[in-house]
User: Fold this.
Amino acid sequence: MISQFFVLSQRGDNIVFRDYRGEVAKGSAEIFFRKVKFWKEDGQEGAPPVFNVDGVSYFHVKVVGLLFVATTRVNVSPSLVLELLQRIARVIKDYLGVLSEDSLRKNFVLVYELLDEVIDFGYMQTTSTEVLKSYIFNEPIVVDAARLQPLGPAAIFMQGTKRMPGTAITKSVVANEPGGRKREEIFVDIIEKISVIFSSSGYILTSEIDGTIQMKSYLTGNPEIRLALNEDLSIGRGGESANDYRSSYGSGAVILDDCNFHESVRLDGFDMDRTLALVPPDGEFPVMNYRMTQEFKPPFHINCLIEEAGHLKAEVILKVRAEFPSNITANTVVLEMPLPKYTTRASFELEPGVTGQRTDFKGANKKLEWDLEKFVGGVEHTLRAKLTFSQELHELWFNSANIIKEAGPVSMTFTIPMYNVSRLQVKYLQIAKKSSSYNPYRWVRYVTQANSYVARI
Amino acid sequence: MAPPAQSQRSPSPSQPSGKSEVSDLKLQLRQLAGSRAPGVDDSKRELFKKVISYMTIGIDVSSLFGEMVMCSATSDIVLKKMCYLYVGNYAKVNPDLALLTINFLQRDCRDEDPMIRGLALRSLCSLRVANLVEYLVGPLGSGLKDSNSYVRMVAVMGVLKLYHISASTCIDADFPSILKHLMLHDSDTQVVANCLSALQEIWSAEASTSEEASREREALISKPFIYYLLNRIKEFCEWAQCLVLELVTKYVPSDSSEIFDIMNLLEDRLQHANGAVVLATIRVFLQLTLSMTDVHQQVYERIKAPLLTLVSSGSPEQSYAVLSHLHLLVMRAPYVFSSDYKHFYCQYNEPSYVKRLKLEMLTAVANESNTYEIVTELCEYAANVDIPIARESIRAVGKIALQQYDVNAIVDRLLQFLEMEKDYVTAEALVLVKDLLRKYPQWSHDCIAVVGNISSKNVQEPKAKAALIWMLGEYSQDMQDAPYVLESLVENWDEEHSAEVRLHLLTAMMKCFFKRPPETQSALGAALAAGIADFHQDVHDRALFYYRILRYNVSVAERVVNPPKQAVSVFADTQSSEIKDRIFDEFNSLSVLYQKPSYMFTDKEHRGPLEFADELGNLSIGEAANNVVPTQMVEENDKDLLLTTSEKEETKGSRNNGSAYSVPYDGSSTSVFASQTQIESAVSNPTLAGHSPQASFAIDDLLGLGIPAAPAVLSPPQLKLNTKAALDPSTFQQKWRQLPVALSQEISVSPQGVAALTAPQALLRHMQSHSIHCIASGGQSPNFKFFFFAQKFEESSNYLVECVINTSSAKAQVKIKADDQNTSQDFSTLFESALSKFGTS
Assistant:
């Protein structure tokens, strides 16, 4: 049970504010915002998602730079409230097509309509986009999606100027398209976030894949859908420890540690032939989340070398090799590496003739940054950075062992469209046919993203 | 509802100040009010939108109330909704004008469109104006009988709203029993769920005054009703499922087959994508199996994978909430998770609050097989750019060292920290090395060699400096230049701002003096002089005390200041097990995130609908809180290195409420009451806020003043028990659920008792001879769990006891509940005394 719900902009302005029970004083939004903004004096630490001020608990989630907040005085389940906040954001996005400060401000009456039905007197009623349709009467005012950063994991298909097929991902579930005809289509996205830690000697310390099969359906009449996954997919690693890497790599079998499913999924056939049956509700939702610690081939190999290079100088050589096929291209690749705090200057040397790469030395936090717009599979890129250290530095301190101690680790972020490391696949996507001419568009898309990709040096 | 305009926020450029705009709107609304022109609804929509947007940003638009109501005569549902929103927001501050809206709302409640009926009813109930409640009863009554489930759903919540405006009107209209009927018979599960929410709130509030309400509330967790909900659980929406699961947690099944049935039924809920459903299910599983040790353990194994999946899917916020729960479980049963340690490795981009939880988990799960990897990983973090986390990582390494037997490798790591030449790393490592030496004095040789190389000038943090000084004093015979380092510190006495450091310096000078008198004497004199002149009271007093005791007799002084020490075996825990258990009982709630039981952060009236804690329950909670105080005092003392380790062990022993006082073994089986007086004195006033007698005993003891323990003021009232008491298990269960915990404490069990407790039966027979009967028992060495009961002689007043005995620590955790709360103290005394005799007769 919650007491209030509100959405604040980055500057702390109320965009919507709904008080359900009148138990929490009116100034709560201001109290909350001040607390979040000045959580720690040094500004280094952010506020946790849940905190308590004078007996009032404040919950918040950040979505596209907006703060979705709930307050309560009772001892509720925190995951219930945080899940609810996330779900409200998703429902609003389903209706508005795009979730942003602008779209919220333009559609706040519709948002109030939604909020009235989602929560009554603090109790959750429904967060189903489907069910809510019959209660919502305002037409969404659609804002231009092109300039805005969309919400949710599917957003990665929008990155850069190259957009993936179909702009439907920013389409409202209720708005009619120009021409009044709705395009029949369904999106199935397999999104995998990978976490890898490489030890300083280059072997993998830990690795994990956190995957989601995300679905967004614009099919009229809610036909039943069958999703077939790899037939040799198995779940649970039996008695083995999760970190005991069996040499299953290359054997072809995909072994999930664990997974969970959306409510609408029926698992009758799952044990038999690895198919998921569901009648997809309107809007965007995760069909299945899965987790894997099975060994996989890391998409990038990182090599970092640091050596002394004269008086109070050192050279960092950073080599990155893409280990995926050459018909695949990763984008928005960024490498970061903290440098010793005595570093005063860094000059960079890229490979001759490369384009779309950018380097930077952040003086304030002594960080090296290397951006690569594109990274084609099979290619290796090298960056040389010449570091100059402060004159105050003690001669005795200066040796490569100490430099290494103060530098690193190298962390990397990237997005690789149309590639997934787990080899989990949607073999087919079957839509129960209404007629022989019924053939909606189906998009099955894969993407791999770095969650935490770190190489120690 | 938007905040009404009292809000004082200064308007930002994007937000107009309001005044002129509002009067403008007023004019325009008036013009449109009577208009029947085509397209008028569209213009109204625009105006209404403006009004609502002003309302949202905090501009007072309540002056438009009249105009808004006039404009509301429309069939346009979008307009109606905006108008309802506006009215709901301002009715409370304009009760007179609110009356104007009653008419059209009541009319809309009879509209043929169920949507309109529902909306109007919701708005009507949201007015929150006490003198309008009479208008609510009629529409609510028909709403509850409406053929459309949407209207019924709204009406049910309406009843709850009415209850909050005027409880008596709600009760008089007999709405609760209508809701109860709906709850049991409605075909729509959301209506059922809303009835459940509403009734839980209403009956919990009424329970203190109404017998019937408390019976009804009790019936919510009766077998038929719980089964009725469980059998339909998949029909409920995910939020309502959480509600049902929360209720199931309170249900006590009659036997183990029932427990397994429920768990099998709910098994697939662990695969739900909604973390709230999964956590609610886990709580049910944990609660159901509390008394079945082996199954409970299986539950831990079963829930591991789903929890880890939830942690790594979903938003960072959700994952934090789940991680906090995982943290709680890891801390309770680290061995279950010891092979999963890699999941607790920190990722560089995680926020500090997540990393902190993970560090604690890594510390907890460290055992012989994984320590090397964990410590290696922690050492990586020590070089982290995030300094607070780097510090905590070092502390974690230290903690692991303190909990392991084979510490060779770890000690080396710690010593490497000292050589890292980062001031905060050195500081943390010094404190750790000091703790390590107190536990493993045998390491002194290696450590001292490294510590000796550290220049005291490079150590600035008071805690680190104090640790260094302590080591200098303690090992001055092994550190060549200890007297000179200390001397230079004394010379800079005035620049030392921390009293803690100055105190340590005094003590270290003394210790150094006893070991190397010629080299230290003059510096000691200077230190004592500076100390006596110190403005800080404690420093002054300590210096004076040292001075006088030295003058009295040097060898006495040495015995006082530097007696032979015993190694510390276990450092005091920061949180009492009572608090931890309470947090565990409140699994899947904020208590877990705050790491505090709910009474510490909620007001009494917001304790949640089904928390069976009334006044007396809170009393016992209060005691639990006091339990913390002495613990913290020990912690303080712990840092005060003046204390010898053996003394510390003693103070540590006395931290728990009364329990520290092991009852003197009384060989001749005199009456139960003989030893009772002694216990009584210890237990009788634990509720004295913040200053329990134990704390002061500890200090008395420390000073060795020989003041006798607080004299027993009252002779204990005599309590006689019925030797032939009888209670059937179901009554016991019901009572156990209903009654608040009157007393909860930890009792020491005598070694003889532990020896005799090879099987539960021995204790049962023993307790029976004291008229305390066992109703259920179980467990295996080292943990035995018992449920006892007793009855007052010639009265039907019952005492219920839950007693968990751990034979390896020789401690019993006892929770007592009583029909007659006033005598629970006496009973507790009796119980403790009976237990203490176990094994001796």
Notes: Residues 475-563 of chain B form one domain. The CA atoms of residues 218 and 738 of chain B lie 9 Å apart. Chain B touches chain A through 105 residues (CB under 8 Å).
